[in-house]
């Protein structure tokens, strides 16, 4: 799908994420970030009603993919967020320097930086805003993809990625929705069976693709046209498994 469709999706995302989001007064607005706490990759989601208390907030470590609730508020360019275990984020919003992107509040920011402190430990925090949209996240993030629970679907995606990165060809082949479209690269093809996937493994899972899949986060994935993606579109999944691979 990195042909016409993925190009169109990429273009739309670039336009949507290049600048700050515009929030309507009194309306719920959700902001999603990715970055690091110390050296640990994390994701964060904050849903706020204008400039008041957060309605919903959490963050997660990529190594664990377990949501940790956050409470707090936005005070101009400053965010103070507290988790149940006593950890506290003190963050300053960052703008892009453009018109309407001064970072004075969430709706005009492109990221945030600061510290996370718990007990006597303090770690630096760096976050980039990945997306912003009106409303709060739904209870079933993948309702357009599958009737399975979010946890079950994410577990399937995680298992596929783990098998691929470990070179477990037979395991990965069981989590593919055939025919699998392999787009771009030196050997585009349509893979119609597990046997064909295994036979063409090295042509499909190139070092460049494996490096990209190594960055994949199978949690709170972007959904488009009843499919979810990881690693900036390197792999797409439907209810049955991997449906498309897009070579770098």
Task: Report what the structure shows.
The protein has 248 residues and is of the alpha+beta class. The protein has 2 domains: 111 residues, Porin; 97 residues, Roll (Nuclear Transport Factor 2, Chain: A), CATH 3.10.450. It has 6 helices and 15 strands. A 9-stranded antiparallel sheet has the order 4-3-2-1-9-8-7-6-5, covered by helices on one side. Strand 13 and strand 14 form a beta hairpin. The radius of gyration is 19 Å and the shape is elongated.
List the helices and strands and how they pair.
Blueprint: H1 4-17, E1 28-37, E2 40-49, E3 54-61, E4 68-69, E5 71-75, E6 78-82, E7 88-94, E8 111-118, E9 121-134, H2 150-166, H3 169-173, E10 176-183, E11 189-191, H4 194-199, H5 201-204, H6 207-213, E12 222-224, E13 227-230, E14 235-238, E15 241-246
Parallel strand pairs: 10-15
Antiparallel strand pairs: 1-2, 1-9, 2-3, 3-4, 5-6, 6-7, 7-8, 8-9, 10-11, 12-13, 13-14, 14-15
Task: Kindly summarize this structure in a few lines.
The protein is an alpha+beta fold.
Features:
alpha+beta; 248 residues; Nuclear Transport Factor 2, Chain: A; Porin
Average pLDDT level: 86
SSE-based structural type = alpha+beta
The SSE string, one letter per element, is HEEEEEEEEEHHEEHHHEEEE
| Helix content range | 10-25%
Distance between the termini: 12 Å
Q: How are the strands ordered across the major sheet?
A: 4-3-2-1-9-8-7-6-5
CATH architecture of the largest domain: Beta Barrel
CATH topology of the largest domain: Porin
Give the low-confidence spans: 1-24
Number of beta strands: 15
Q: Please write the CATH class name of the largest domain.
A: Mainly Beta
The geometry reads as elongated
Number of helices: 6
- Strand percentage lies at 35-45%
**Cα-atom radius of gyration:** 19 Å
């Amino acid at each position: 799908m990195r042909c016409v469709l993925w190009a169109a999706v990429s273009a739309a995302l670039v336009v949507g994420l290049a600048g700050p989001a515009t929030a309507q007064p009194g309306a719920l607005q959700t902001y999603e970030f990715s970055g690091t706490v110390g050296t640990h990759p994390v994701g964060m989601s904050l849903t706020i009603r204008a400039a008041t208390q957060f309605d919903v907030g959490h963050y997660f470590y990529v190594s664990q993919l377990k949501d940790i609730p956050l409470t707090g508020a936005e005070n101009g360019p400053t965010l103070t967020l507290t988790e149940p275990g006593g950890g506290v984020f003190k963050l300053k919003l960052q703008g892009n320097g453009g018109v309407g992107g001064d970072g004075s509040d969430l709706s005009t920011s492109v990221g945030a930086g600061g510290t996370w402190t718990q007990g006597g430990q303090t770690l630096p925090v760096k976050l980039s805003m990945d997306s912003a949209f009106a409303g709060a996240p739904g209870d079933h993030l993948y309702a357009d993809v599958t009737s399975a629970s979010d946890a079950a679907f994410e577990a399937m995606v995680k298992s596929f990625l783990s098998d691929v990165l470990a070179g477990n060809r037979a395991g990965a082949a069981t989590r593919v929705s055939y025919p699998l479209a392999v787009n771009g690269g030196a050997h585009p093809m349509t893979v119609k069976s597990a046997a064909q996937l295994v036979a063409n493994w090295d042509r499909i899972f190139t070092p460049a693709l494996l490096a990209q899949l190594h960055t994949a986060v199978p949690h709170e994935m972007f959904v488009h046209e009843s499919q979810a993606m990881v690693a900036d579109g390197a792999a797409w999944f439907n209810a049955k498994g991997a449906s498309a691979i897009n070579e770098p």
